[in-house]
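Q: Hi! First time doing this. I have a protein sequence and I read that you can turn it into a structure. Is that right? Here it is:
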Amino acid sequence: MVDQPYFNMGSNTGKLSFPPATNFVQLGGTYNITSGRWTSARTLNPIVLTASATVALIEGATTIEQ
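A: Yes, that's right. Below is the predicted 3D structure, encoded as structure tokens:
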């Protein structure tokens, strides 16, 4: 395996684009605290924020398992 110490080097080309200023990108999935690994693929969910949006709108996408 060849070292890829910096973003976008070698085959490390995955990118997450920035949302518009009024949006939030929620990353979710299932994380196992015993193994220290994600046990399900992470999901990307764009959320449009409004002036009346609450923090509950962006919470809860990640679950933790042992």
